[in-house]
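Structure in, sequence out. Go:
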C-alpha cells in the first residue's frame, strides 16, 4: 500500500486503537431532509469533535461544515436515485476523483446493491473507484446497501456482500450488524464497520449492538440515525466512542451516556 493511501486510511482507522468512529449523515442523498437532519449544520456541529471521520455528500460538506473544523471526511460519491423513484439501487458515481482530492477527503464511499437488478452496475462502479483510489492513494469504503429490503440483513447475505466488496479491492466495508455476525467478519479480509440502521428503541440497544459487533470483529461504526435522532446525541456518540476505542462494556457506556446527559462530565 502506498504512503498516501496508508496516511489517508490512518485518518479513518485510528492507528492507536485500530478502530474507527465514523459519523454518517449522508442520508439526504436519497432521502432528502431526513428527520433531525433537516438543518445538517445545527445537528452535526456539536458531534464533530467526537467523530474520527464524518461521512457525507459534497453538497452538505460545502454548505454545512466549517472548513476550519478539526475533522476528516469520507465522501459519499454514489447516488442518482431517490426513495420515491422506481429503482433505488440504480446508482451511478456522482462525484469525480478530482473533486474528492480538491475537498481534501480521507476516503470515498459507494453503495453496492448485491442481488438487485443493478448488481453488476454497482459492483463495476465500486471497481472503478478502487482503480482510481489505487492510482491517487484514496481509500474506498464499500457499503453493502439493502435499499428498502431491511429483512435482507442476515449473516449469509451480508457475508456474500462483504466478501465481494473485499474481493473487488475495497479498503473498508460498511455493513449491518446481524445474528452470527462473526461469520461476516471472519470471511471478509478487510476491516468492517457497522451502520446503525433505523433508530432502535433504547440507548442500551444501540450500545449492545455496538459492543457485540466489536466483540465479533468489527473495527468500529459508521453510524447515523441512532446518534443524531436521539434527544441526547452528544451523550450517545461519547458512549459509542468509549465502546469502540476504550473497549468499554455496554453497561459502562450507558453510565457514561447518563453522566453526559446529566451534565456530570
Ligand atoms: C445510507 O443512507 C448511508 O450509507 C448511511 O450512512 C448508513 O446507513 C449509516 O447510517 P445509519 O446508522 O443511520 O444506518
Amino acid at each position: 500500500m502506498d504512503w498516501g493511501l496508508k496516511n489517508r486510511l490512518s485518518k479513518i482507522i485510528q492507528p492507536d486503537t485500530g478502530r474507527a468512529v465514523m459519523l454518517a449523515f449522508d442520508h439526504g442523498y436519497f432521502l432528502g431532509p431526513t428527520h433531525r437532519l433537516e438543518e445538517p449544520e445545527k445537528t452535526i456541529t456539536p458531534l464533530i469533535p467526537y467523530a474520527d471521520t464524518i461521512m457525507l455528500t459534497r453538497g452538505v460538506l460545502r454548505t454545512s461544515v466549517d472548513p476550519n473544523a478539526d475533522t476528516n471526511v469520507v465522501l459519499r460519491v454514489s447516488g442518482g436515485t431517490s426513495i420515491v423513484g422506481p429503482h433505488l439501487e440504480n446508482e451511478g458515481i456522482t462525484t469525480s476523483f478530482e473533486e474528492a482530492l480538491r475537498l481534501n477527503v480521507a476516503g470515498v464511499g459507494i453503495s453496492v446493491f448485491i442481488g438487485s437488478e443493478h448488481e453488476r452496475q454497482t459492483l463495476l462502479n465500486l471497481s472503478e473507484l478502487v482503480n482510481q483510489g489505487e492510482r491517487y492513494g484514496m481509500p474506498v469504503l464499500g457499503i453493502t446497501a439493502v435499499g428498502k429490503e431491511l429483512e435482507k440483513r442476515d449473516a449469509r447475505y451480508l457475508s456474500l456482500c462483504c466478501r465481494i466488496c473485499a474481493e473487488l479491492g475495497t479498503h473498508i466495508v460498511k455493513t449491518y450488524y446481524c445474528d452470527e455476525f462473526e461469520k461476516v467478519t471472519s470471511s471478509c479480509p478487510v476491516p468492517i464497520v457497522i451502520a446503525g440502521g433505523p433508530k432502535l428503541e433504547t440507548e442500551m440497544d444501540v450500545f449492545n449492538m455496538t459492543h457485540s459487533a466489536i466483540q465479533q470483529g468489527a473495527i468500529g461504526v459508521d453510524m447515523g440515525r441512532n446518534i443524531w435522532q436521539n434527544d441526547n446525541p452528544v451523550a450517545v456518540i461519547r458512549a459509542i466512542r468509549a465502546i469502540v476505542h476504550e473497549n468499554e462494556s455496554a453497561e459502562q457506556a450507558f453510565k457514561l451516556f447518563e453522566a453526559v446527559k446529566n451534565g456530570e462530565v
